């Protein structure tokens, strides 16, 4: 697949999630899963993350809240690292997760804090 939104999305996706992760995701995609990788890259990363009205750090913080609320641990870990890559300080990540506790429930926040702590530790050793 090659179009302007896909290429823009691919660049942003690599910047936020890390080039190794994105390359591995695309390389491991097969006939069944490749359309999802293309869709996510073009529309999520190109059409939405590529907009200028919110900064990458702002988008990261919004994602952390939504992904925590949805209880998606793999994506949360990935996006905590992405937020750190985008320059979001650990303190702001903590504040978002505290907000999650109030609006989404303490169990969601407890899991999210645990996952975020792991992600931060991994990020700091990369």
Helix-strand blueprint:
Layout: H1 4-17, H2 19-27, H3 34-48, H4 56-69, H5 73-85, H6 90-104, H7 106-125
Helix pairs in contact: 1-2, 1-3, 4-5, 4-6, 5-7, 6-7
Structure characterization notes:
By secondary structure, the chain is mainly α. The N and C termini lie far apart (31 Å). It is built from seven helices and no strands. The chain has helices spanning 4-17, 19-27, 34-48, 56-69, 73-85, 90-104, 106-125. The chain is 79% helix and 0% strand.
What is the structure about, briefly put?
By secondary structure, the protein is mainly alpha-helical.
Q: Helix share of residues?
A: over 70%
First CA to last CA: what distance?
31 Å
Number of helices: 7
- Can you write the helix and strand succession as a string? HHHHHHH
For the biggest sheet, the summary is: none
Look at the helices and sheets and give the structural class. mainly alpha
Residue share in β-strands: under 5%
Net shape = globular
Record field, number of beta strands: 0
Mean of all residue-level pLDDT scores: 96
Query: Stretches where pLDDT falls below 50 for ≥5 residues?
Result: none
Rg for CA atoms: 15 Å
Features:
single chain; 126 residues; mainly alpha; 7 helices; 79% helix; 0% strand
